[in-house]
Design a protein that fits this description.
The longest helix is centred in the middle third of the chain and has 38 residues. Helix 2 runs parallel beside helix 4 and helix 3 packs antiparallel against helix 4. This protein is globular. The chain is 84% helix and 0% strand. It has 446 residues and is mainly alpha-helical. It is built from 14 helices and no strands.
């Protein structure tokens, strides 16, 4: 099987796809933020819990990527095919369950987060039109995993470009009511996202099921008949990653809950900074996905030293990128923040936080890249354990900063920096050890 992709050959299409998606999200939020600042708080309060629930699907899918990558490294195509059909079927069923959860309990979720009117009404209106995205998540996550395990990331990029371009056009039409379309504001942004995701998925499926994309042909009949056993194996490998992702998001929800005790404006500032720093984070995640795929291939082959070398290359590249990011944040803070707000008070408070976010890029990139390498080794337990520590640390430090030292929102972001730094050190020592044993991937039933 074809398996000798370069690190950036895998990472670059993923990075471009993620960056284009984030540019689309920034445009979306810039449109809404300039209409009404409370919309930014609504977006933050919707995005955090929604992503927390959806991240369980994506994190479990990490188990499929790891197992398929190792099977590819061991040149075991029948196993790859069985895993692929299984993840497509059962991820879709999980997405249906989450769709029903959000359809009936969205109000209760937002109220539990401390969201009050008028922001609560905005959250519910936005969520109503965003529900179809949840249904599509299962197929999207599974398809991405299959392609990434082979290093075939260009189809992911193509589908992402189509989706993001469509979203920007629909935002302009539906938020502002241009060209005779209804002026829907916040609801228009959500509807544009749902329609664009559906359009992107169509392109995605055409590319995925094309007979020349994969070494084998995906078949709908095999997807429907896929047994639960392979998904149990995927889940056992992916559940620690799901737990890790869930705890990370719980930490973010906790931080958002603390910020809501300050003011709704604090949650809006958090959303602005998150919208900015997510762009470099997407670069690190794409690089990490490339590291995980190649480390999985080398682990499947039993090549321990090469798996470690791939991780070191990822660290070097990520810190070069972090330096560029810090310089940009130091030199152009007002220009960057001005994309999202023209409020003087919000601008002044956000400048300091933006610098902290730039410094945080170093330990954050370390965690993302090394964590991906460790998962590629097949060890998903380690990152879950360090995330337990990190969630406790970040919430405790943030609470101290807010209530004991009266540092306000700045204290919350310093707490996040501390969390990333501590976990970065711990993860580095685990990474250096490499895979514990070469993985021998056997055919099903062997």
């Amino acid at each position: 099987m074809k398996k000798d992709k370069t690190l950036w050959g895998i990472a670059f299409p993923l990075m471009l796809n993620m960056l284009i998606s984030q540019v689309q999200l920034i445009i979306d939020r810039a449109f809404l933020g300039r209409i009404q600042v409370e919309y930014m708080s609504a977006l933050g309060n919707v995005t955090a819990p929604l992503w927390t629930s959806l991240s369980v699907i994506f994190a479990i899918t990490t188990g499929a990527t790891i197992l398929m990558s190792q099977a590819i490294g061991a040149d075991n195509e029948p196993r790859v095919r069985q895993l692929a059909h299984s993840v497509l079927k059962f991820n879709s069923l999980m997405a249906i369950g989450l769709f029903l959860l959000w359809s009936f309990f969205a109000r209760q979720i937002f109220q539990a987060m401390g969201v009050a009117e008028p922001v609560l009404g905005y959250c519910l209106a936005y969520m109503t039109y965003l529900l179809p995205v949840i249904l599509l998540t299962g197929i999207i996550s599974a398809s991405t995993s299959i392609l990434q395990s082979y290093g075939f990331t260009r189809p992911i990029m193509i589908a992402g470009i189509v989706r993001s371009a469509l979203n920007i056009i629909l935002d302009w039409l539906l938020i502002f009511g241009n060209w005779g379309f209804p002026e829907l504001g916040l609801e228009g942004a959500a509807l544009a996202t749902s329609l664009a995701e559906a359009g992107g998925l169509i392109i995605f499926l055409v590319l995925l099921f094309h007979p020349k994309t994969l070494p084998f042909t995906l078949r709908v009949r095999e997807i429907l008949r896929a047994p639960l056993g392979f998904y149990k194996e995927i889940s056992m490998k992916g559940l620690p990653s799901a737990g890790e992702e869930f705890l990370w998001n719980i930490g973010n929800l906790g931080l958002l809950r603390l910020l809501n005790t300050i003011s709704m404006l604090a949650a809006g500032i958090h959303t602005i900074i998150f919208s900015i720093e997510i762009i470099p984070a997407m670069v690190f995640i794409a690089l990490g996905q490339g590291v995980m795929t190649l480390a999985g291939h080398r682990t499947g082959e039993g090549n321990r030293q090469e798996a470690i070398r791939i991780g070191y290359r990822g660290i070097l590249d990520s810190w070069i990128i972090s330096t560029v990011i810090l310089v940009i944040f130091l030199v152009l803070p007002r220009q960057i923040l001005g994309i999202f707000t023209n409020d003087p008070q919000t601008m002044e408070t956000s400048i300091t936080i933006l610098v902290i976010a730039g410094l945080k890029s170093y330990p954050r990139s370390l965690n993302i890249v090394l964590g991906s390498a460790i998962r590629g080794y097949g060890d998903t337990q380690w990152m879950f354990k360090t995330q337990i520590l990190g969630t406790i640390l970040v919430l405790g430090a943030a609470a101290l900063g807010l209530f004991a030292f009266n540092m306000g929102i700045v204290g919350v972001f310093w707490a996040v920096f501390l969390d990333e730094a501590v976990r970065g050190v711990l993860n580095f020592f685990r990474f250096r050890r490499g895979p514990d044993l070469p993985v021998a991937v056997q055919p099903a039933g062997a």
